[in-house]
Amino acid sequence: MTVHSQGAVTSAPQDAPPKSAGRPQTPAPATGASHTPPRGGRKSLPSGWLPYLLVAPAVLALATLLLYPLIKNVILSLQDINKVEFIQRKYPFAGLDNYTELLGDSAFWTVVVRSFAFTLANVALIMVLGSLIGILLNKLGTKMRLVLSMALVMAWAMPIVASVQVFRWLFDEQFGVMNWVMRTAGFSGYEQHNWMETGLSTMVIVTILVVWGSIPFVALNMYAGLTTVGAELYEAARMDGANGWQTFWKIVFPNLKPFFLITTFLEVIWVFKAFTQVYAMNKGGPDRASEILPVFAYVEGQSQAHYGLAAAISVLTIVILVIVMSFYFRLILKQEEEQ
Amino acid sequence: MSTSTTTAPKPAAPEGPAQQLRTRRPVRPGAVAKNLGALLLALVFVFPVYWMFSSALKPADQMLTKDPVFVFTPTLDNFGKATGVENFWTYVTNSVLVTVGAVVLALLVALAASFAIARMRFKGRKGLVLTVMMAQMAPWEVMVIAMYMIARDGELLNSLPLLTAIYFVMILPFTIWTLRGFIAAVPVTLEEAAQIDGCTRGQAFRKVIFPLLAPGLMSTSLFGFITAWNEFAMVLILNKDKTAQTLPLWLTEFMSAFGNDWGATMAASSLFAVPVLLIFIFLQRKAVGGMTAGAVKG
């Protein structure tokens, strides 16, 4: 958007850079440059088709590898494809059968409720703890801040699949550190405690993993945001006799509202789609009791060979995501209007 | 924790280094609590990473003990086991090819598109900006079944080029979005000045604009690298053939092949994580440096 205002002021040279930009990789753009007059080429031919040419590869890629699969997903969800149909490559139209089957199945609703609870718990923990750690970072001395932020960066950088393996090892039934920690802390029953015994405790471990891995993003961004809130604002608040809590609600929160909005929204999307953490941890088990929507769709599709049904699950998941997204966009729009 | 925070400052005051303390501000219990809390938090966040590396270096006989061993003579045995797996180098090669391919492709395509978006006005520009924004939130993990059917019908299962193409589109929106910002931050007058000094437009771009984009190119490509390097859902469903798989699958399937060999698994995890950890630490400094430089100039 800043581009626009900048371009409006200097409208004449605005066309100059794009021509060179068109060939960032090819070494000889000289012909294009000499054809058009150096200034005021606004209506000349290249600026007519050049932007489209530049944009075309990106649009084409998004259309074939993102839009097409999305459409295909919807089509699949309306077809009856199981093992036999899959092998014969005959996909009979099934109308809304997959959807009615899903919506009437209590197992589906269990997964939906679990997905929501999982997302809610994770995002709440991530946002609250992440913000608190961000505030702490802002209040630390230089050295301690470096120590804590380096630790955060390490956790942030851990590849998900690697951290899943590490957490499985930490929570190992026989030789895991966590059982040792619990025993050392004086709890009984942790001789050979199986942390993956139930779906709920598996979800708790996934939650610890996700929260551990996601807090750094929120905390470090919160800290960066806090440094942009001017010191004089805090000063003024203190002179007016505000306590810490009031300072937060009156000064910090309004200033960082966009930050909270964007981060919460991003975390909701990320956690809701958290396939790798859940699947790599215990494949949605035991007994399918830790499946969230993306894992449910995968297991239905791949292990059970119910491809049409799996597509319907993913369409419903996308619908939920779109609802969340539209909620977010409305918030953004409302906020723009207020300003 | 609370007991230590209240008692800690007391013995410090009457003791020796009072001079030093008095010249600074007095140590308040709150400050000690803050620092202790921060230290504890740092330990919590680092511990899994530390435990991964230390388990990877632990001799086998000190690995499977009821009480964990913290002091030991490190060994590289586990790394030998991890890399000795059949096809290990195929996994590595596949991962590198797919990741680098996707990132380079994304940079080339995004550079062109973001230039158009940042510097030109054309019909449909706003729609494109909106599309790119939405595409950043694409539900890739959810679309695996559709992808599988498409790949299967197109005889493209176990195809590394398809995987590369998918990763390329996964990281494309973010790359466009970020580069657009970096290009917009370069003043148009800089290009003009170079042209007045006798540069052609191509030269002006190469000599003036491109160097200024370096931090942007760096941070976007590293972000793309991390995304593609870590991707799990797509390769899990599309490439069942071991010769067409990447490192994330090698890692998760390590367990089934090696039973409960946690030492080897942690060595494998370490090998997988090290490039990302290094890149991330590097990225943090570069990206932050680049942004502050831009802010000062802007």
Automatic annotation (TrEMBL), chain A:
Lineage: superkingdom: Bacteria
Major subcellular site: membrane
Domain ABC transmembrane type-1 per the UniProt entry, residue ranges: 112-328
Claim: Transmembrane is one of the keywords in the record: yes
Coiled coil: none
InterPro entries: MetI-like, MetI-like_sf, UgpAE/MalFG_permease
Gene3D superfamilies per record: MetI-like
Bilayer-spanning residue ranges: 49-71, 116-137, 146-171, 200-220, 259-280, 307-329
Swiss-Prot/TrEMBL keywords: Cell membrane, Membrane, Transmembrane, Transmembrane helix, Transport
Protein name, entry field: Sugar ABC transporter permease
Lineage: Bacteria, Bacillati, Actinomycetota, Actinomycetes, Kitasatosporales
